[in-house]
Amino acid sequence: MEKPKKGLQNKTYGTEINDFDKKVKREALKKERAYVDVPKKTQRISKQTSRISTTKREYQFITTISDDRGEEVKYAGIPLSKLIEENKNIGDIIGLLWFKKKLPPYASKFIEFIIETLADHGPCVSGAHNAIVAARAGKDLISSVASGLLTIGPRFGGAIDDAAYYFKWGKDTGLSPQEFVDEMKRKGIPIPGIGHRVKSIKNPDKRVILLINYARKFFPKTEYLDYALEVERITTAKRENLILNIDGCTGVLLIDLLKSLGFNDEEIKERTEAGLLNAFFLLGRTIGIVGHVIDQKLLKSELYRTPYEDVLYKLPKEEEL
Ligand SMILES: CC(C)(COP(=O)(O)OP(=O)(O)OC[C@H]1O[C@@H](n2cnc3c(N)ncnc32)[C@H](O)[C@@H]1OP(=O)(O)O)[C@@H](O)C(=O)NCCC(=O)NCCS
Fold first, then answer.
1. Given ligand 1 and candidates 191, 198, 205, 208, which is best to mutate, with the most ligand atoms within 8 Å of its CB?
2. Which atom of ligand 1 is nearest the CA belonging to 246?
3. Would the pLDDT of 319 be above 90?
4. I need a labelling partner for 36 at 20 to 30 A (CA). Which of 7, 75, 187, 191 fits?
């Protein structure tokens, strides 16, 4: 076959070759554009990065917690192997990762104690209940645990930060416990950390007693706990279930702890507002919730449905609408 000359139309295959030529050119042009596009973008990026590197380096984010770039991970600057060699416990690790402090033994043991105390409280409480229902609906471990954790809030396990905040505010502003109770009533805010559905002065919460005993024995000072117990004396005189509950006790003791570790008021405020104190409940209760979910899976429990007789149906009548 005669090779078509450049620029000339081949007599036999003219149209086809021309079409073929055009197609090849089109494809080549597309490729060229694609090829050109990439370097253009790259140029833009490299221009940016060269500008950044010659002026001021902008980082995607800052971290002050851990570093995994070397041979091994460092927690707040300390290599993991060193922490293992020194027999550090989970309280020490939390001290480094959450407080960025090397904790004295009474503090790290207290953190462990809190986690042990908060780890579980039976299947009927909001978190475990939700997780069990989700597990029985066939959801996987993570989804079931998450559905339990999502119940943590102002009425269940999530009052630690608020309790710490308000008791600290009351004491620091010089309100007497009675003035504090009155002021909270005036504001229309139920005192976070006070009150329990089941526990009362006659049926005390053993966990609270254990925490108080530990702090009394090992803490240098328990000024916020003492203040909260004065408040409890006033509220339980009104109703026996208005005790200092586990959230309240954990909250004030964490304030006493942070104070004893050298955190100033502003630093405590920042951490409380960031949710750091509720994190102890979150972490602790995750242990129990995982247990409940695995338990249901091993028991091969069937789908849960609330019995009709457990629900009061109070629908309006159509004519009332
Ligand atoms: C835990 C809690 C939900 C239990 O509530 P409850 O036993 O159902 O009590 P009720 O909400 O029915 O309130 C009953 C009475 O106690 C009072 N009360 C309840 N909690 C109170 C609180 N924290 N501070 C002041 N008064 C409180 C109510 O005002 C009400 O008083 P009244 O009868 O004069 O109207 C409730 O005490 C509360 O919200 N506490 C604060 C949040 C908290 O600490 N949550 C963590 C729990 S571990």
1. 191
2. 48
3. yes
4. 7
Sign of the torsion angle spanned by Cα atoms 81, 85, 86, 87? positive
pTM of the model: 0.79
Q: How far is the CA of 241 from the centre of ligand 1 (A)?
A: 8
Number of structural domains, the chain?
1
Q: Which residues neighbour 90 within 8 Å (Cβ) at sequence distance 6 or greater?
A: 111, 112, 115
Structure tokens belonging to residue 18: 């021309």
CB under 8 A, 24+ apart: contacts of 55-58: none
Indicate the top mutation candidate among 199, 245, 280, 282 to test ligand 1's pocket, ranked by most ligand atoms within 8 A of CB.
Answer: 245
DSSP 47-95: HHHHHHHHS-PPPS----SEE-SSSS-EETTEEHHHHHHTT--HHHHHI
117 assigned to some structural domain:
no
Name the CA radius of gyration of the chain, rounded. 32
Per the structure, the complete domain to which residue 231 belongs is given by 160-298
For residue 55, pLDDT over 80 is answered with no
CATH code where residue 290 lies: 1.10.230.10
Q: Report the residue among 126, 185, 196 best suited for mutation to probe ligand 1: largest number of ligand atoms under 8 A from its CB.
A: 196
Domain presence at residue 11: no
* Cα–ligand 1 centroid distance for 243 (angstroms): 10
pLDDT per residue as tens digits for the range 110-155: 999 999 999 999 999 999 999 999 999 999 999 999 999 999 998 8
219 in a structural domain: yes
Give the distance between the most distant pair of CA atoms in the chain: 111
